[in-house]
Amino acid sequence: MTTITTFDRSAGIAVWRQIMETLKAEIVSGAFEKDRRLPPESELAARFGVNRHTVRRAIAALTSEGILRADQGRGTFVASAPLSYPIGPRTRFSEIVSGQDRSPSGRLIGSEIEEADALLAHQLDVPLGTPLLRVATLRVADSVPMIVGTSWFEQARVPNFVADYAESGSITAALKKAGIDDYRRKETRITAELVEARDARQLGLALGQPVLVVESLNLDMAGRPIQYTRARLAADRMQLVVDGGGV
């Protein structure tokens, strides 16, 4: 006997989206492992008490996010779960992605020198007008874009950062070449907004979709600010897990 999952149709959220979020939560929890076949549309429609068209729309949305894949003649399979992304004192994109059996990479999408305004001078603890290196990056897991980030560094401390990052695709590796062997997260601030057009193109998102905005400040091991970042995360592809000691 099929157990029917009911939804609140007065909640202001489309039923297909509620189905999508339910399936996504089950994939994240491990109920549907990678490469496992989803039940047929007819079975899911019976479970959720909807027609097959509604189920098909939810599956299409998850497929467009790279969470599901359709194999012609075989069915729909779990391609990958949303990336679980811990936020704590040692937040390292490459380590996090590699630890979940995915392949991390980073790409430089822009850089320039600018003078520190009041906000950046405060964050990086430098005088107003100090030359800063602003770097825009795209972080990718298994060829799926995850994060567009803008980071600021005191330019004098990382004079060859652009070339070093372009070569390695790793902020940690580029900082090591500048003599900064390790660093830690001082604070993280998380908000949300609708994706801007430029970020939508980089992340492969439709305008109007939400992104998580993560502002962070990293310190070197002497406690001196080294990196201030404003990152925009594809909300449907990532799940933030906040370490109690990291904020």
UniProtKB/TrEMBL annotation:
Q: Per UniProt, what is one Pfam family of this protein?
A: UTRA
Task: Give the top-rank taxon of the lineage listed in the UniProt record for this protein.
Answer: Bacteria
Q: In this protein, which residues make up the domain named HTH gntR-type? A: 13-81
Q: Which UniProt keywords apply?
A: DNA-binding, Transcription, Transcription regulation
What PANTHER family does the database record attribute to this sequence? MANNOSYL-D-GLYCERATE TRANSPORT/METABOLISM SYSTEM REPRESSOR MNGR-RELATED (PTHR44846), MANNOSYL-D-GLYCERATE TRANSPORT_METABOLISM SYSTEM REPRESSOR MNGR-RELATED (PTHR44846:SF1)
The protein's name in its UniProt record: Phosphonate metabolism transcriptional regulator PhnF
